[in-house]
């Protein structure tokens, strides 16, 4: 419904008709009357459905869904989530321009898949996502987001925030632009912090901005494009502040932040000098105090971690570890050779593109484990062959040390070996892949390893012993890493529930795989007979594999084996091959399966009375992350 267009036409007409030469002005009431007379307002009110999708009523931190015009078909939508007693910031994205990388992009053909841009927003515990638009030099973004600006203090919830209160809310609107290609692979294009408070000093509480987005990583100084943004306060402000007041407040905040960061830097340099004086060899240890985020900004590592509660989306620490493990793993992209480009991501950028490096996984897992009340730390060190790595460690109250590998979800117990004991050779080799450890940190502490050897095997994790672990002052860490300590820290977004329907997706992938198998066998001159009952019998096995990944407990295997024995007649052979993916692309999964000789043997099975089966089970996790289990099986008469 082109509401804006129709309103403009009617207003123009009204002004022509009703504005006699002697009249200077039409009041707002006259214009509203004119719109009412032509039935526009009633139409708009009828069309307006406010969307509240997946909003968890339980949690104050539940991600709010965007409010907007919806199609007539969506009659199922629940009613409004606009509260007339609350203050909102209406942020409209009105198109983009100068996305020069897409200058040569052909016009998208209707119905044909093309690469798309999606804009993800986070503001004060509310998450939004724009509709995907085709990648172009001038992408056609037309989306509005209603962001609630609420107060922090308890008991203030009933009063609407006025302009002075809002001026003290320093949280930016974090915007992340994601590109999704035709194979559903995502790339992080830009990450931008929008300072929205300029709207408080603009007349009528409306302002238009052009925002220049910069690239990420090595390209953080290169412009990727420009977005046109319109900000509006709703309901309109009774009094706007002068632009001068707004600018002074922002300048003061910047000054305060810069001063805190400068003092921390001075302290960190001093700490590092002292650390080097303990032993010259410390120079080569992986003691990481600062890390660059996707915008190339150096931030203290402790600011990448914060206790994070998953609400009702994840139930146990081990389930949280499984969720982090099914988020994709991808090293930061680098153009040309020459080693690893280091880039730690802000949480929103990591979640929106659904994949990241080992540090991103470790930071998220540590944050979730802290949320579950465990004493968790991120460890920075090396794996075999001296490859830099990050993983998570939890310290039990009884002194047990557990390592959590965030990329696989595996857990390892750590028992220190004493290198001086003669039986050191007989001491069993550790199962974990870690070789050396330089430092550990979480949101409040940073500790450098100052034991004679930095080998993980012989390391003692008594973090209170300053002769083994050199701590940074907790006050210093808090001054730059505590929530709200500085305005340059991006606030942590809440996790979002999955939007994927597990049964529908499982079915779709299974159908595609059946087709791919049949075609593959046809090329080999083989016919394909599917047995649905056998396929169904594979379900319990897939469920128990996922259960084992989440809980480390294996269950239900006896029933599965019994059912298979009954389904396979005497003189027949059964073969099954389970495999696990974290993406939902059937063609890519099939190509990977064919590389395994076991699986290829099943798919290309020749023999008497060959019956094939395939079962797919998709397990959904927050943020639309998925664990996809596939099992191929066949039974045939054994002919000797």
UniProtKB/TrEMBL annotation:
This protein's UniProt keywords: Cytoplasm, Cytoskeleton
Compartments where found: Cytoplasm, Cytoskeleton, Microtubule organizing center, Centrosome, Centriole
Occurrences of domain CEP76 N-terminal (ranges): 1-48
Pfam family, one: CEPT76_peptidase
One GO CC term, this protein: centriole
Example of a GO biological process term: regulation of centriole replication
Residues in CEP76/DRC7 peptidase-like domain copies: 342-472
Primary localization: cytoplasm
Domain CEP76 C2 as annotated: residue spans: 81-238
InterPro entries, per the entry: CEP76 (IPR052299), CEP76-C2 (IPR028926), CEP76_C (IPR056288), CEP76_N (IPR056289), CEPT76/DRC7_peptidase-like_dom (IPR056290), Papain-like_cys_pep_sf (IPR038765)
Residue intervals of the Centrosomal protein of 76 kDa C-terminal domain: 499-637
Top-level taxonomic group: Eukaryota
Task performed by this protein: Centrosomal protein involved in regulation of centriole duplication. Required to limit centriole duplication to once per cell cycle by preventing centriole reduplication.
Quaternary context: Interacts with CCP110 and CEP97.
Family: Belongs to the CEP76 family.
This protein's name: Centrosomal protein of 76 kDa
